[in-house]
Design goal:
alpha/beta; five-stranded parallel beta sheet
């Protein structure tokens, strides 16, 4: 039986929810699940090309404790082929231009996210 798709909805601000969204995404992809990471509103910070979450003190703290941080997990997500979608309405709500996003992030709506997940499961952070 093929593994069901995991959809991750990231809507919260800050390092911790973004970090754990990547932990879930890369973990699921590593065991063969298809993963769609959809960020909206404050969660869009994860997809910004200027990477504001990398300057959060928690990033350095995780490194000192031997825990993969956002920088490492973003690279792993790309290597594992995780589909990343930025919510078009969320971008407008946060006044973020699509050009400000990291390379490879799609811009689409919630319908696209839900279609991509299909009968899989969705986790919201």
């Amino acid at each position: 039986m093929p593994a069901r798709t995991l959809g991750i909805l990231l809507r919260s601000a800050g390092h911790e929810p973004a970090h754990y969204a990547l932990v879930l995404a890369t973990g699921a992809a590593a065991v063969g699940r298809s993963v769609v990471l959809f960020a909206t509103n404050a969660g869009l910070a994860l997809f910004r090309a200027d990477a504001p979450l990398l300057t959060d003190p928690r990033e350095a703290l995780l490194a000192t404790r031997g825990v993969a941080g956002i920088a490492t997990l973003r690279e792993a997500a790309a290597d594992l082929g995780i589909r990343r979608i930025a919510c078009d309405a969320g971008l407008r709500a946060e006044a973020i231009a699509p050009s400000a996003l990291e390379h490879g992030v799609e811009v689409a709506g919630v319908v696209t996210f839900l279609e991509a997940v299909g009968d899989g499961s969705v986790v919201s952070l």
